[in-house]
Amino acid sequence: MISSMMVLEGIGVQKWTYILVGLTFALYIGIAIWSRANSTKDFYVAGGGVSPWANGMATAADWMSAASFISMAGIISFAGYDGAVYLMGWTGGYVLLALLLAPYLRKFGKFTVPDFIGDRYYSKTARLVAVFCALLVSFTYVAGQMRGVGIVFSRFLEVNIDTGVIIGMFIVLFYAVLGGMKGITYTQVAQYCVLIFAFMVPAIFISIQMTGNPIPQLGFGSELADGSGTYLLDKLDGLSTQLGFEEYTEGSKSMIDVFAITLALMVGTAGLPHVIVRFFTVKRVRDARKSAGIALLLIVILYTTAPAVAVFARTNMIETVSNKPYEGVPDWFKKWETTGLIGFTDKNNDGRIQYVADVSKNELIVDRDIMVLANPEIAKLPNWVIALVAAGGLAAALSTAAGLLLVISASVSHDLIKKIINPKISEKGELVTARISAVGAVCVAGYFGINPPGFVAAVVALAFGLAAASFFPAIILGIFYKRMNKEGAIAGMIVGIVSMLLYMIKYKLGWFDETLPDKSEWWFGISPEGFGSVAMMLNFIVSISIMKFTPKPPKRVQNIVEKIRIPSGVGKAKRH
After folding, report:
1. DSSP class of residue 396?
2. Exposed/middle/buried for 524, CB within 10 Å: 0-12, 13-18, 19+?
3. pLDDT digits (tens, 9 = 90+) for 106-140
């Protein structure tokens, strides 16, 4: 027993990564072959026969992207209390989905979000606008996933980021093109199991190591295990203020910005096309609501653990690196330094790493995306745990990438080609077109992963604002307001998406100015991350205003809207 443990401990991180990543990739490919799509219904909505638990797990994996697995704890680690807006917004979005959207969209019975908008608003123009919005949101999101895959491969398999992106492209391409939504669904069930295990295991290890409490959610609010009687959060507050940062447990954002960001993330989540399409895959309307609830429970496991991981990682990083001689830094620092995601510039030539809030004196540059991935190494956990986190990061990135690529594929093949360009295309022809579209989408996503334009990294986090500004009002009004017509919906979507894009371009990307405008110039004090809330309200106002002065929808459309709101099995309900 002891000898076998010594053998396991002797296996390096890179070999463990090859083993664990190889096993998980083999599992994903095997599932794709077993569940390959044979019809357009299989390809778009997994045949419409997925169970609530399977769909809930797949939805959770679809949602918990590289941003959730890799970046969210990193954001909280550096933003402290202010990072709570991401937890509130992203989990709250699923409450909206479960109550307001999932059952009604399932009852409408379409393949895609543009499909719903095109039929509900009886207009090819509405469908085209929806296709444009879906492609914009999906491509900005998927580029970040592919880049995340490249980063994980770069560090743990010691290949360059470009090679890592290409490997990820081929894996996603295989099971997305072969299996479609059917293959992706069951692959995502496996990926959820991998990513949640990979996230929780190191969190539990470090929680025990630092506080003696095996439950991370309780551990980060507990006393340290060193017998000092100091609470972990109090210690981190002290470390932060010593270095000139704000107290970790104090917020600096204005209340209106916190509200705006939270709302934008909530309604953006409820408007993301790759999430919404998951609710077209279940058998019954009630299954859609049930699977949304299951997904929320499964997501909460990771989301309640992320603040603990953030606290563990930041505390360990400060104690390991700050004011330490560069020559004596631990191995994890040197290994991550080769990726370019952490760096040291000796400004005062004293050979020590000065990590302080004052930019003019600070000598350490840390990319927040490394905090989760490097956390087990910083805490000196076993090599297999470090490799497990790599496998989890890849599972998170690939599961979301696959869902997004399917949305892109379906938008092109079903909504653009079948519904507008060539309505007479056969089912076989449509399936071939869908697969070709998926290949093209993977290539474009891979290109942006290898050659990210300057704006991609900034825009990925704002995909939620784009979804909130474009889709959410059109979907909500389409379900609950039968008087809503095509003119209002089209005008609202255009105004919403354009206003969001312009605000992003000016205040996040700085394209209109030589330097990025100061925060004092933000409208109403609202950051670009929160402006999706304002753009959404503009969408609502424009939609309803234009609707008041334009003709009512056809009677058949009004009847459809009434029908999708009647619970199944009611029979003849009175209509008012």
Report:
1. H
2. exposed
3. 777 766 788 889 999 999 999 999 999 988 888 87
Distance CA 354, CA 242 (A): 12
Could you give all domains of the chain from N- to C-terminal order, each with its CATH number? 41-319+368-451 (1.20.1730.10)
Classify residue 43 by burial, with Cβ atoms within 10 Å: 0-12, 13-18, 19+.
buried
Residue 224 carries which DSSP code?
P
The terminus-to-terminus CA distance of the chain in angstroms comes to 74
At residue 470, the pLDDT reads 93
Neighbours of 183 (CB within 10 A): 28
Cα separation, 83 vs 519, in Å, equals 18
Prediction pTM value? 0.84
Token pair for residue 458?
Answer: 């900034």
**What distance in Å separates the CA atoms of residue 332 and residue 377, rounded to the nearest whole number?**
6
> Is residue 31 very low, low, confident or very high in pLDDT (cuts 50, 70, 90)?
confident
Tell how far CA 510 is from the center of its chain. Answer: 24
DSSP string, 510-524: -TTSSSPPPGGGSGG
pLDDT tens-digit readout, 299-350 = 889 999 999 999 999 999 998 888 889 888 888 888 888 877 888 888 888 8
For residue 42, what pLDDT is reported? 66
Nearest CA-CA partner of 186 in 56, 58, 40: 58
Lowest mean pLDDT among 50-64, 139-153, 219-233: 139-153
Confidence of residue 464 (pLDDT cuts 50, 70, 90): confident
CB 269 within 8 A of CB 464: yes
- Helix axes 52-63 and 161-211, enclosed angle (nearest 10): 100
Residue 307 CA to chain centroid, in angstroms?
Answer: 17
DSSP per-residue string spanning 436-450: HHHHHHHHHHHHHHH
Q: Is 428 helix (H, G, I), strand (E, B) or coil?
A: helix
Residues 6+ apart with CB under 8 A from 47: 39, 41, 182, 281
In Å, how far are 13, 25, 188, 388, 399 from 20, measured between CA atoms?
Answer: 10, 9, 17, 7, 17
